[in-house]
Design a protein that fits this description.
Elements (H helix, E strand, L loop, with lengths): L1 E3 L5 H14 L10 H9 L6 E6 L6 E12 L4 E11 L8 H16 L4 E3 L6 H9 L15 H7 L5
Parallel strand pairs: 4-5
Antiparallel strand pairs: 1-2, 2-3, 3-4
Length: about 160
């Protein structure tokens, strides 16, 4: 079962984010707090949205998708940028990841959004194969750049 996240889900989303960071070999980089996630998802001006995957039998939360809106100047409409998709290892193969992506695709179609985009680590072959099986194609001609920490502070006018 896939459902929209509610405030009571923040602690499990936080735990799943930590699990994802560990899986991606970057646990020390996942410093977001539950309070920050709550504000981003349910604050006065939500900047992100989330869906929860629950086991049909037990009702246990087994995965999540956290996303936000982007905008294509070329197409002139919004799209969805999937920030995180994670299904607990013991629940993989049960259709939860596909169900989460199907729900986001449904939202795109319903709202007239023309893109659903995400990033995947180049070493994550199981996920890459899964995404390809759904018809997703890598955008290999693009390179992701990121400013963070000292570089961001310096460029933004504040010395670290």
């Amino acid at each position: 079962m896939i459902r929209t996240a509610v405030p009571a889900d923040v602690s499990v989303i936080h735990a799943l984010v930590r699990d994802l960071a560990t899986y991606e070999k970057a646990a020390d980089e996942a410093v977001a707090t539950e309070e920050q996630l709550h504000e981003a998802l349910f604050g006065e001006r939500p900047a992100a949205f989330a869906h929860i995957a629950q086991d049909d039998t037990s009702g246990e939360t087994v995965g999540f998708a956290l996303w936000f809106l982007n905008f294509s100047t070329w197409r002139g409409v919004h799209g969805i940028r999937l920030e995180d998709l994670y299904v607990r290892p013991e629940a993989r193969g049960g259709g939860h990841g596909k169900a989460l992506l199907t729900e986001l695709a449904r939202i795109c179609v319903e709202r007239g959004y023309e893109r659903l985009e995400w990033s995947v680590l180049d070493w994550n072959e199981p996920s890459i194969a899964f995404y390809r099986s759904l018809g997703a194609r890598p955008q290999s001609e693009w390179t992701v750049f990121r400013l963070t920490d000292d570089a961001l502070s310096t460029l933004g006018g504040r010395r670290p």
